[in-house]
Amino acid sequence: MELFLHYSLIPSLFIILVLSFLQRREHRKQRDDTSHLLENRFGIIIPLDFVGTFSNRWSYGIAFGATANKVMFLFSEGYQPLQIPQWAQAFVLLIGGMEVGLSYFPFFACLSSEFHLVSSILGFSYSLIWFAVTILHIIECPHGQFLGKYETVMFYWPSLLCLAFLLGRFLHMFVKSLRVHLGWELQREEKPFLEVHQAEHVKRLLRKAPPQETKKSWFQTRIYEWDPCFQFPSRMIGTTVLAFICLYLFIVIEFCMFVYVRDELDVFEGELENYIASMNQTGTLIPAILQVKELMNVSKGVWLVTILPSSLTCVSYLFHILACYRKHMKRLWAGNKHFLPLKFHHPSSSESVVAIARYSGWQIAYILWGYLIIHVVQSLCGLMIMYSLVLPVVHNQGLEMLQGLGIGTLTISIVLGLMILQVWIATAFFLQPKMSAADKQKPLALNSRKAFQNFNYFLFFYNVLLGLGACLSRLLISCILGTWLIARIDRTIMQNGYEGADMGFGAWIGMLYVDHYHTNPVLVSFCNILITGHRERRLQQAIKYWCLNQSPGPRVSARPRTRWLLLLTLVNNPRLAMLRKSRPGHGSREFTQILLMGSES
């Protein structure tokens, strides 16, 4: 498959050249007639619009999903075609990323091309090549050394499913474009500047009376409420699909490593049993060896059990990130930036532009590394539970365990009770009474100052010891929350004032601002009004000239009519006469001089 990745660049470049040849350059400088040799061919083609694409979203998402195996190949740093020093490894990974992107470029280019008939044929052929090569690879090497039978199928079935979907999508595009080409179906309108959901959002804002609230279901109230006036861009859909598939592949790879380590530990455990049998269970190291065996068995079981909650946590994060994206975008549309740290209220424009390119890749990497870190933390918590609650019962030490648990619970309860008691004493004796019965709490005004000073003095020494436990609890809670939320790129885990050190959160904020500035429904609606008005004025002007050309009277050739309109334009705009291009033999210079003399007189 790695070898085919290199050779796939040949048909990829061919498809790119064909699509580029069909694409005409729209904005070009004025040149002489002899320089238009290519007839404005070989325009720049784009794979997809990362900012404002709301149509064909799931096709782009599935196309991203087809790249999952190669993304994991790059993530594991397996791309090493050359033997280079360690300091140049970043350049090799950059080249590998460019090669993978170029190899999968035709999928996106064929989906976004305006020439549906040609692009569907090219996209179907290229997808069929990848599908056939993947099937051939699975048939030749179906089994593996870690999971045994059908290990290759477990790795490649998501890519096969995505390629099969792309085959069906390109086939559907071909049938529709062929019907349009044969005249059996009308040509579909070009992509609208203003999307339907954006127009509906503006209509909702302009309504005087708020819409009647309907009864919401439990799913809408507790989990997610669908909004018909909001759509996720293709970038978010593609990132989520690719993150799901990469997370699945990462879990499979981790399970393969677990199987390998488990087999090695079983061999090591067999050697320990042979040592115990040779010593007739009378050696001084026998208790320690038994504890090591128990630790290995418990660790294997805990690691295997915590795979499910760790993966479910990361899957829930992916859905929650989409919900947070919608919530943050709506707040920015409303002009609300209070949910952002103060230093991110006016981010750098260049950093925001780079963030739109970083976000998707960083989100996937955060999810994968976050899963591994969460899995390790959950495994450590599982070991603590096993050694503190389960194993004492297995070893007939349940009473001692309950006694220690009761003493610990009682100690913590007393400490918390004393802290609550301090608050109650301060409320009852050291604050002045409420100024009004409607007040929720007493005013911050001291009462019984002498008693208050003695209260502070005697609790000073106790609070020194209490602060030690509070400091340790702060450290423990920070570690737990930091590791638990490490995969959440939409939420910073840094303290207030240090959010700038969180590069992932900075990429999230920059991406939000780029989408806010380029897809704000109110701004897009305003631009759509300007464009529509400009088109209507041009249409009215064209109709006026058409009526002039179709007026009754003697037939006049087109050349005198054109020269007459040119004369009117130059008389009304004398400065344009000086900018006219002079052509020898046409008398344009003399015509211009006469026109200038007439305008001066």
From TrEMBL:
Q: Is the keyword Cell membrane in the record?
A: yes
Predominant location of this chain?
Answer: membrane
Q: Which domain of life is it from?
A: Eukaryota
- Is Protein transport set as a keyword in this record? no
Membrane spanning stretches: 6-22, 58-75, 87-105, 117-139, 154-171, 241-261, 302-325, 366-390, 410-431, 457-486
GO function terms (MF aspect): retinol transmembrane transporter activity; signaling receptor activity
Q: How would you describe this protein's topology in the membrane?
A: Multi-pass membrane protein
InterPro entries documented for this protein: STRA6-like
Q: What is this protein called?
A: Stimulated by retinoic acid gene 6 protein-like
